[in-house]
Design goal:
2 domains, Four Helix Bundle (Hemerythrin (Met), subunit A), elongated, single chain
Length: 186
């Protein structure tokens, strides 16, 4: 094979690689923006309605006071991760029947969903900008390198946050098959 033929084959391989990333990247954006984020927002809306309902019936999230405020963070208490604090508070106040924490777990989940959605959207927009820059390049090697180094890494970032949402969002609202469903479906 001549040097010219080798170079031609190399260019074809670069173009094939580039085309695959050019096809996959808009699909990644379309799937997360058109399916995953709307499912997450629906679930988040349900949780918000749940919190509103709990507030109406008198559930509460305890505020830190006195010595507890100095030694414990509000986040740890709201997340339900401080059994010592919770047991020390029992009997001191007139708590609602829902007990200490009230709607704190729902608030934490709402915040997680917001964080994951924001990360996905940010990375999709960054990926789009990286694609635009890569497409503006003329040299095939530079263009393929730009896709490899600056576009494709966003796939993993987006997937990471989408996977986190998959574990949080209710199965009923998740429109795509979940990994565990695909693995164990006969």
């Amino acid at each position: 094979m001549s040097e010219r033929e080798q170079h031609a084959r190399y260019e074809i391989q670069l173009e094939t690689y580039m085309k695959k990333i050019q096809i996959e990247s808009p699909l990644v954006g379309e799937i997360v923006m058109g399916s995953i984020i709307p499912s997450a927002i629906k679930y988040q809306s349900r949780l918000i309605e749940n919190v509103k309902g709990l507030k109406e019936i008198g559930a509460f999230t305890p505020a830190l006071k006195g010595e507890h405020a100095a030694s414990k963070t509000k986040k740890a208490v709201l997340a339900g991760g401080d059994d010592e604090f919770i047991s020390s508070m029992k009997g001191e106040n007139d708590y609602s029947p829902l007990g200490v924490g009230g709607y704190a777990p729902q608030i934490e989940t709402i915040n997680k969903i917001s964080k994951y959605i924001a990360a996905i959207q940010t990375n999709v927009y960054k990926m789009i900008e990286a694609r635009k820059k890569a497409n503006s390049l003329e040299d095939m090697q530079d263009k393929a390198s730009a896709y490899c180094d600056h576009v494709k890494p966003y796939f993993d970032e987006i997937r990471y946050h989408a996977d986190k949402l998959e574990f949080v969002v209710d199965d009923e609202l998740w429109v795509l098959p979940k990994y565990r469903e695909m693995l164990f479906t006969r």
